[in-house]
Amino acid sequence: MAGQPNVTKVTMLSGFLGAGKTTVLRYVLENSKEKIACIVNDVASINIDAKLVRNDNMRARGEQTNTTADLTDTIELQNGCACCNLQDELFTSFEKILALADRRGEPYARIVLENSGVAEPQNIRDKFNEAAAAGHPLMQRLELDTLVTVVDAGGFIKEYASRTPLAARPDLGEGGNLRPVVDLLVEQVECADYVVLNKTDMLADEEKQAQLVAIVSSLNPLATVIPCTQGKVPIEVVFGSQAHGVVAKLNTEGQHRGAVAAAKAAQQASEHKHDHKHKHEHKHDHAADGKEHDGCKACEHEHDHDHHHHHHDHKDEHKHDHEADGKEHEGCKACEHEHHHHDHHDHNHKHEHKHDHDHEGHSHDDCAACREEGEHGHHHHHHHHGHSHSERPSQTTAASRFGIRSFVYSRRKPFHPQRLKEMVLKWLPVTHNQAIDGEAPAVGDTPIKTVLRSKGFMWMSNSHTTAYYWSHAGQHFEIRDEGDWWSAVPEEDWPEEEAQRNVVLQDFDVSTDFGDRRQEIVFIGVGMEEDKICAQLDGALLTDEEMAMYMKRWASVPDPAHPALEALKQAKRKST
User: What is the pTM of this model?
Assistant: First the structure.
């Protein structure tokens, strides 16, 4: 082909078996005006060899179509789940699809990768991002554009409350392991640009649908939630020219920052609303005419506000970049914040800080997470969402209506492991808790039992260098090692570009010597009492006396020198 080959967009389609992935895909293939190819990751016990299926003659004769392969060019993957052991075969399949398009001289508008029911979208997304960072030649032809997850609306609450592992639920997808069903369900929802709530006709009424939309929107404030029946989605919005993703360009830490930003923005909006209610009550005196009144400061004020790992293998993924154009995008606060790190470090600290909005560089004006993240310098591939987050205001309203809210617990002291276990972890509303060493959960009421989902970074006093990740969903809770804090990483292993280093430094506390060590946990729940939950968590922090002992204990293991941090500290001293 002459000139630069076209870049083909890729949509990754995830969801449990039975949720309706194939139904959605068939509807799209039968009704889309664009040319779409498919790669199907089938891990059933009987598979056919990976092959390219062409059925032009059958379609021309008007014969009945029974499979995805009957509707479009399709490659079926044979050797297992794409998120586990299929990277080579997966990329080879993309190469075959692109080669076919080249031979015909007819590029595809989009390639849809339909995952198996138990596939982990986060792992597959990370493989794409790692390949792009490594300069894989295929990435000059492909762009992971959007992540779409299909959820069985009628079964969501049941699966969220599930205690069983995937291996015991072959009905959700063959090849499952011991990972809890709820853990993968939450990953599929949170690792998505669009969450399709299929089979909404199975819900009792519109109230139940609104409640489910509110729950899913709270779990993933960066996604657009689309209720539907029989897989009939708005094709242009989800799979067409209007479809662009944010989460597809993120990694673990970028998602975390997005959740933190959204929670803080919602919290601020709630505080404004509460403040207005108590301080500007005279606004209600104007209710009869519905007008804004000159000279009424409350009206003017309310008008102004009415618009509304450390994937720490530091393997180069503290990344939130605009890979398509390499530019920082004005108006995207996430860009200004993540503007700091995109480099991949080759030493177990996969600081995945990639929250990018690719392509056109449009800021999402109504995306609170974008605005907040930007204040922290996220370099943020800013795709222009064709849907412009248009569903989000109503989703936020729904969340308020059902009492669903979120907040961020932020502290700069470590937890005492034993007190954390006794005062907090035993009281979590879960039956599967790896963090309490097999002990029975505590019985009784406690503020933290109103939490539906919580996640974020933890600092533990028994480890000075390791960042831990707190993850609670439904009946499952775990704390996992996410690698080293940036503070403990030698500066030569930090990203090379100054802008990227600035992203790293945004998380540092320049008033202490503890760097980016912190508690930063997002809590989502119904009827939560934030002050009481925070008090419960505060009780597990080190006391001032214990903190002095902690500092003495770890003084013999100082962090590597960070000249950039020292420069920031010096600048702060001069300013004060």
Answer: 0.74
